[in-house]
């Protein structure tokens, strides 16, 4: 009886110690490093158990074509800037001091860039947040935009369509992507949590695929992928990946969490769709292709008729 009482008293305390108050990724969670792993992020913020959470697994055959998802126009993406790049203890984040913006893609108004950050695995292994037909890429870039009418991201997050995030996958390539040299060099100076430096002149355009390769993408309504998991994000996930060499991908795993352990596995597991529909661009292309196919078929039938 006395032993049972001791267990009742100390077990909740032990669980609390093992859980912790801060949020973390699954790769960080141990009883020696108390924090709330992804399955308990709702302890950090109740919105993390909402019904429109991100990321998701995108099943291509279940997506619906939408002809309104026209190509984006990337304005001022080619302008170089010197932004602050920081190890924030969960990821690498770069604040964008000028205001590139995007229009088109069925966004009702222009959305201006606030910052970008990345999610990765371990030494170039699987690490993207979104997956396509269950495939997880080595890394994922998120360029965070807010509706042009807002001056603070906090205010934009209160609007159900206040934030638009563009997501880009990475793939391993045989050769290094020299456009990423400024970022890779900067990483080597911000290994520890809280460390930051000024990113040598870089443009958003050089970090993403050429615009002509960005016409195929997916669209759905979701959330931030870290606490507070606010469900106010219009998500665009592009099909065309960004190439990086294995060595370039591995540099990200040299960064450190605040406890000094390697910063790896910085992705949230995919979340349930809960009835949401995922759309894909190319509706017009599909219709056009069908029309061409039918015309070709008609012509072939005509040619095959006897004189």
TrEMBL record:
Its EC number is 4.2.1.1. This is Carbonic anhydrase. The keyword Metal-binding applies. Its cofactor is Zn(2+). Belongs to the alpha-carbonic anhydrase family. Residues 1-20 form the signal peptide. It is found in: Cell membrane. Residues 21-282 form the Alpha-carbonic anhydrase domain. The chain crosses the membrane at residues 277-303. InterPro entries: CA4/CA15 (IPR041874), CA_dom (IPR001148), CA_dom_sf (IPR036398), Carbonic_anhydrase_a-class (IPR023561), Carbonic_anhydrase_a-class_CS (IPR018338). Catalyzes the reversible hydration of carbon dioxide into bicarbonate and protons and thus is essential to maintaining intracellular and extracellular pH. May stimulate the sodium/bicarbonate transporter activity of SLC4A4 that acts in pH homeostasis. It is essential for acid overload removal from the retina and retina epithelium, and acid release in the choriocapillaris in the choroid. It comes from the Eukaryota. Keywords: Cell membrane, Disulfide bond, Glycoprotein, GPI-anchor, Lipoprotein, Lyase, Membrane, Metal-binding, Signal, Transmembrane, Transmembrane helix, Zinc. It is an enzyme of class 4 (lyase). One of its GO terms (molecular function) is zinc ion binding.
């Amino acid at each position: 009886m006395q032993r049972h009482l001791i267990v009742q008293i100390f077990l909740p305390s032990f669980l609390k110690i093992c859980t912790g108050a801060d949020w973390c990724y699954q790769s960080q969670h141990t009883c020696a490093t108390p924090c709330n792993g992804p399955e308990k992020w709702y302890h950090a913020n109740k919105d993390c158990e909402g019904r429109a959470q991100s990321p998701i697994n995108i099943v291509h055959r279940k997506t619906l074509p939408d002809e309104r998802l026209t190509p984006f126009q990337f304005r001022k993406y080619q302008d170089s800037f010197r932004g602050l790049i920081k190890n924030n203890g969960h990821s690498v984040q770069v604040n964008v001091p000028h205001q590139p913006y995007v229009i088109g893609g069925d966004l009702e108004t222009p959305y201006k860039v606030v910052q970008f950050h990345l999610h990765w695995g371990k030494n170039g292994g699987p690490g993207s947040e979104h997956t396509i037909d269950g495939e997880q890429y080595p890394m994922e870039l998120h360029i965070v935009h807010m509706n042009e009418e807002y001056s603070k991201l906090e205010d934009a997050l209160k609007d159900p369509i206040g934030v638009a995030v563009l997501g880009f996958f990475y793939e391993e390539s045989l050769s290094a992507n020299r456009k990423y040299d400024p970022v890779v060099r900067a990483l080597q100076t911000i290994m520890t949590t809280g460390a930051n430096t000024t990113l040598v002149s870089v443009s958003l355009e050089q970090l993403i695929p050429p615009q002509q390769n960005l016409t195929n993408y997916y669209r759905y309504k979701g959330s931030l992928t870290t606490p507070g998991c606010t469900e106010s994000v219009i998500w665009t996930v592009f099909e065309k990946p960004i190439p990086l060499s294995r060595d370039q991908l591995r540099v990200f795993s040299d960064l450190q969490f605040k406890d000094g352990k390697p910063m790896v596995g910085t992705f949230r597991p995919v979340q349930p769709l809960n009835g949401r529909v995922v759309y894909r661009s190319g509706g017009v292309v599909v219709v056009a292709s069908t029309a061409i196919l039918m015309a070709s078929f008609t012509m072939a039938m005509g040619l095959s008729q006897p004189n």
